Amino acid sequence: MKTKSLNSSTVLLMAVSAAIIVANINYIQPIEADIAQQFNLANSVVGAVAMLTQLGYAFGLLLIVPMGDIMNRRTLILRLLSLAIISAMLAFVAPNIWVYAAASLLIGITSVAPQVIIPYAGFLAPDGQRGRVLGNVLSGLLVGVLLSRTVSGVLASVLPWQAVYLIAAVMIALLGLVLVKKLPRDPVTNHQTTYRAMIKTVPRLVKKYPVLRASAVNGFVLFGVSNIFWATLVFYLQHQYHWGSREAGLLALLGVTGVLAAPLIGRLADQFKPRTIIGLGLVLSTVAYVVFLTFGTHLAGLIVGIVILDLGTQFGQVANQARVQSIDPRASSRFNSVFMFGYFMGGALGSFFGNLLWDFAGWQGVCVLGFIVLVAGFYAHFVHYPHVVRKRTQQAS
């Protein structure tokens, strides 16, 4: 094996790459109302289409990301970028909801490259700096989530909403040209396991490591409650303020707090038990929903709640990634795929049931759903998994 290396410019490139690629799966959230209007659909139907993107991402995590443990990761990332361009263009030219739904599913499946980049960064990082490096790369991921909502919402207010996907395809193509020249070569050259044999190890890893199961459940909860809010925000703004996609996108900029906090959270995960940081993420997310329910009818309350919710999500994301990537570097991609599969399954179901509750019970129903999911999260974190130990010395495959 060649010597591992990771410098600050490489970390920055990985963070920017994660931002541009992950943006694809979030463009739909601020423009759901526009899509519903154009295709004459109920909000819950568009919510189901948004769920397809999250589900596609989840299954891409489960079936594609583990390939990073058995093949050249640089090659895998570049191939995924090519497929992501095709998927975005399909969404751009979609003539009806059925084609757009298929494109949404493919966008989710082909946008998993950041989840190959993240464990790659963790693999290249020195042990004492892994949390900081992952925090920086994850801050790029959050920037992508943040700006995707803003860019999508603002563009859809002045251009046809389909233009968002054309611009996305162009950005990914430009990124691909940069990565061909700048992305580090994979130092691992002796991959010997087949895809089939590698996939068979994933259930065994889940069974073997309680910390992996705990992280997947926690990710399910925290991203689930995040998407319950973001998937329904544009409808709430229409109802409460007669606002649209532009205002929903601009409110997403408040997530900059989470971006700025990510490197700090990474350092905290290096210094303290990640489990403590994760518990704080659950607390912050709960406080956010208290603010939404109590003061959500006021713009100031909505703003405060968004900041707290994004912080809670980021606390859980960074700390969970730090402890998952510390289990065994030989299976880092598989560990990441399991964790992020749980994460995005929570996001997919959060989007779907958030829209469903909005149609049936309005804003209060959405907030109650968030509380129910968070109660399950507290139970899992403090009761079902009261203490998990990382087994770094055990064989991972």
UniProtKB/TrEMBL annotation:
Entries under SUPFAM superfamilies matching the protein: MFS general substrate transporter
Organism superkingdom: Bacteria
Localization: Cell membrane
Ranges that cross the membrane: 12-29, 41-64, 76-94, 100-121, 133-151, 163-180, 217-237, 249-269, 276-293, 299-318, 338-357, 363-382
Keywords noted in UniProt: Membrane, Transmembrane, Transmembrane helix, Transport
Any Pfam family: MFS_1
Domain Major facilitator superfamily (MFS) profile: 10-388
UniProt topology in membrane: Multi-pass membrane protein
Listed name of the protein: MFS transporter
Source organism: Lactiplantibacillus plajomi
Lineage: Bacteria, Bacillati, Bacillota, Bacilli, Lactobacillales
